[in-house]
Specification:
Strand order of the largest sheet: 5-2-1-9-22
Number of domains: 4
Number of helices: 14
InterPro entries: FAD-bd_OxRdtase, FAD/NAD-bd_sf, FAD/NAD-binding_dom, FAD/NAD-linked_Rdtase_dimer_sf, Pyr_nucl-diS_OxRdtase_dimer, Rhodanese-like_dom, Rhodanese-like_dom_sf
Number of strands: 33
Oligomer: single chain
Helix content: 10-25%
Family: Belongs to the class-III pyridine nucleotide-disulfide oxidoreductase family.
Structural class: alpha/beta
Radius of gyration: 26 Å
Cofactor: FAD
Protein name: FAD-dependent oxidoreductase
CATH class of the largest domain: Alpha Beta
Pfam families: Pyr_redox_2 (PF07992), Pyr_redox_dim (PF02852)
CATH superfamily of the largest domain: FAD/NAD(P)-binding domain
Length: about 550
């Protein structure tokens, strides 16, 4: 069996290597446009910041080493330019001399990846304007950052790579600003969670401007200014992180099914041509919750999809059931992770969902280095299936996200998760694990034991008509009357039992305890502000 793989890096090399393990007799050849067959694309921002010291650490395998390890034939500097499905051939151009060769196949794997999208504006070709997609990009960006000539940097794009680039540039004492065209950074997070992260970045001197479209980059010989619809800012360096586009233009007339240039595949990784598979950033997979096609240009997805496709190519059976949009990002003093559906995504999918925002300790509060998680948990209202989680904090947000991935994959309901026997010791967690605690809080909300309002609803003005009561350990809310529930009398002077009361503390827990006490005294219209002043701030009274 002759199998031709177009593209390397993550998806192509994973498919080829696994295929040779599954069927050592298969004749497997990789055609790769670049000279680096396998590199750590997700590590590029950390090379820029010097966390990864040497470029060589980014190179997972050289072509020669990969050939020896796997038995796969590798041809680099070769670009596929035409596909003849009827003849089962691919025409490729040798980039060193322009000559063309024709390669035949029994089965074809398209792992051609994606390339950065340059915004259609003036100045993208100026000196010190960079993308961050390849090791060469990272080397050039690091050299500029280390030149001593860069004091101000602008990162265009507030996705994960853009934010990681911003963190690593700022770590070099470069004043860094992030410009995002969308209403928020951190795609896939709900707006109030992203806004909290933006505030934390500002605390670390990384300013974020959302709803900000860049219109031009200007300068004489190199970048000097970035022009936006609402502002101008000086810049010595610009990183463009404005998205990627699948490298499938050469396949547009091939008859392969695509959506916006991304190849459609089934659960086996197979296209509408039974001899052709597609994996990695050029291919669609599926959303695990809805089953709909989903684009997941992540190194994790590329590796998993490639491995699964290889099993099928070799005659086995492997279904890649889908992705959840799982992501994790390291920011200055803050980690951000998410998986599954946000409230907005659930609504778009026609799912009636409930959510809760809570602030919980990430480990025993008395243990040195302990911190807090800001958690948003989302579940289907009808059957209480867990749908998603978003977590912000300086601790192990990836652990919280991975628990949720497991639960969503197994279609777990909140009740299935409420009493899990999680690992506990003070350096690692709390006695009731923060994930379990968040589940219990959401169960309380769904049952009516907790009546609360999320930060998004509060920011949208849904607390209008409510009187704010500060019920924290000590007075903290500017302009609000203070109430200590542990000293609560039989009645509250000057407050009617039918009055609408919004209870605010630091995190939400003490407000919940106050709500219980007030209910027992006949105060029926109390609402807890989720996340308290930690998420919503202290200046809440207008």
């Amino acid at each position: 069996m002759k199998i031709l793989v177009i593209g390397g890096v993550a998806a192509g090399t994973k498919t080829a290597a696994k295929l040779k393990r599954e069927d050592p007799t298969a004749e497997v050849t990789i055609l790769n446009k670049g000279e680096d067959i396998s590199y750590a694309g997700c590590g590029l921002p950390y090379y820029v910041g010097g966390v990864i010291a040497d470029r060589s650490a980014l190179i997972v395998n050289t072509p020669a080493k990969f050939e020896k390890l796997t038995g796969v034939a590798v041809k680099c500097g070769v670009e596929a330019v035409a596909l003849d499905r009827a003849a089962k051939t691919v025409t490729a151009k040798n980039l060193s001399d322009g000559s063309e060769s024709v390669y035949s196949y029994d089965k074809l794997v398209l792992a051609v990846g994606a390339s950065p999208v340059a915004p259609p504006i003036e100045g993208v070709n100026l000196k010190n304007v960079f993308f961050l997609r390849t090791p060469e990009d990272a080397v050039a960006l690091r050299q500029a950052a280390e030149s001593g000539e860069v004091r101000r940097a602008v990162v265009v794009g507030g996705g994960y790579i853009g934010l990681e680039a911003a963190e690593n540039l700022a770590s070099r004492d470069i004043r860094t600003t992030v410009l995002e065209m969308a209403p928020q950074i951190l795609p896939g997070f709900d707006q109030e969670m992203a806004a909290w992260a933006e505030d934390r970045l500002a605390d670390q001197d990384i300013m974020v401007f959302t709803n900000e479209r860049v219109t031009a980059i200007t300068g004489e010989e190199k970048v000097e200014k970035v022009l936006c619809e609402n502002r101008k800012m000086k810049a010595d360096l610009v990183v463009l992180s404005t998205g990627i586009r699948p490298n499938t233009k050469w396949l547009m007339d091939s008859g392969l099914d695509m959506v916006k240039g991304t190849l459609l595949t089934d659960l086996h990784g197979q296209t509408n041509d039974p001899a052709i598979w597609a994996v990695g950033d050029c291919a669609m997979v599926h959303n695990l919750i809805t089953g709909a096609p989903a684009w997941s240009p992540m190194g994790s997805t590329a590796n998993i999809a490639g491995r699964s496709a290889a099993v099928n190519l070799a005659g086995g059976e492997s279904e890649y059931l889908g992705v959840l949009g799982t992501a994790v990002c390291k920011l200055p003093g803050l980690n951000a992770g998410r998986t599954g559906m946000s409230v907005a995504q659930a609504a778009a999918a026609g799912i009636d969902a409930e959510s809760v925002v809570c602030v919980l300790d990430d480990k025993a509060h008395y243990y040195p280095g302990s911190g807090e998680f800001i958690i948003k948990l989302v579940a289907a209202r009808e059957d209480q299936r867990l749908l998603g989680i978003q977590v912000l904090g300086k601790g192990a947000v990836d652990k919280m996200v991975d628990i949720a991935v497991t639960a969503i994959t197994m279609k777990a309901r909140l009740a299935d998760l409420a009493n899990m026997d999680m690992a506990y010791a003070p350096p690692f967690s709390t006695a009731i694990h923060p994930f379990v605690a968040a589940v219990q809080i959401l169960l309380n909300k769904l049952s009516g034991k907790l009546v609360s309002m999320g930060p998004a609803d509060f920011q949208a003005g849904k607390a209008e008509g409510y009187r704010i009561l500060d019920v924290g350990m000590a007075p903290a809310v500017t302009g609000a009357p203070y109430l200590d529930f542990t000293a609560l009398p039989a009645g509250l002077e000057g407050i009617g039992k039918d009055e609408k009361l919004l209870l605010v503390c630091a995190k939400g827990k003490r407000a919940y305890l106050t709500q219980n006490r007030l209910r027992a005294l006949g105060y029926a219209n109390t609402v807890v502000l989720e996340g308290g002043t930690t998420v919503n701030g202290t200046e809440l009274v207008k």
